[in-house]
Amino acid sequence: MRVLVVGSGGREHALCWSLAASPLLTRLWCAPGNPGTATCAENVPIAAADIAALVGFARENAVDLVVPGPEAPLVTGLADALAGAGVRCCGPGAAAARLEGSKSFAKEVADAAGIPTALWERFEDAGEALAFVRRRGAPIVVKADGLAGGKGVVVAASTEAAEAAVADFMQARRLGAAGAAVVIEECLAGDEVSLFALCDGTDALLLGAARDHKRLGDGDTGPNTGGMGAVSPPPGLPPEFPEAAMAGIIRPALAELARRGTPFRGVLFAGLMLTADGPKLLEFNVRFGDPECQVLLLRLKSDLLAALLAACDGELGDFDLRWREEAAVGVVLAARGYPGAAAQGGVIAGLPQAAEIPGAYVFHAGTEVQDGRIVAAGGRVLTVCALGGDTAAARDSAYRAIAAIDWPDAIFRRDIGA
Predict the structure, then answer these.
(1) Which of 201, 238, 259, 369 is 20 to 30 Å from the Cα of 33, by its Cα?
(2) Any idea what the CATH number is for the domain that residue 28 is in?
């Protein structure tokens, strides 16, 4: 099999690392990739958003399967364009990718499928949205309806904070067209869990659960980020939860999308809140999360490539996956200033020493090579992960690996998995 992974983050490094172990693999590319993906794939200088160039490369190089990492190319039609060229893609077409591309569409699907979720309203007029916030009070959640790169959700503890979010999204247009409409919903209380399933349009196969840590600072303080760490399996998760969530959330969503004539193929990611009334849907994503992908794939014993092909070919009903019993912990190292203007160009040393810690793995995200040295070139720069007999052991190994890395600009949480 000749495979092309699309993207350049830690998620894509983990995907390439896992796919490279497949006995089915003949050749592996990553577009555009990073210094980490270059250790297990051939990097191709094509941007993840350049659909025409990606399709052209796939056709010219007889690519058998394309594996998209980020959501934006899927929302803008990468899978559809590849299908038109006769190339398999393990990702949904644009119509089904609206589950992530439009918060209100995801809510409509959830309501139609009987999936429990927060009460919500959609607004295209800022004045009406502000009046609704003042009428309902806080806490309340304001979400940009469109794709916002993880920056489109404000959990407002006060009416003033919610009003500021509406003004920021709808009037100041800080997120551009993504914030032209907003979804305002009730604030759910409980523990968050990310559930992942591999789907073939009809059947779904559990890929596991993880807990992501979005806030920048220890104790879940500070601004929201793209993710500062993840743990799999989430400590304290009831053993019956994953299959219950598959039955009550994933499979009903698949059935509703199929009923609409837009079957979903690829990785479906449900962000859930474990409330006193049971799990409720926060959002759907149409791809692996980052950094959840890194910790999930560390625990996967089966051949990832075979599973992705089964999803593309509608064969998941007869497929199974094997998982390691160990726990995995991943800690994101970001550049000073993130999630704002992040410090760039700092030399990162000690990566070989970090990888020598038993059970530890270092996945690259925002890095590049300058004069033969690895330097920071993004906001989230590395994900340092580890496997262990339990969460505590995995956590210990991950932080020992971090201690071996010499990068003065690094910022990271010290309580992931604690």
Answers:
(1) 201
(2) 3.40.50.20
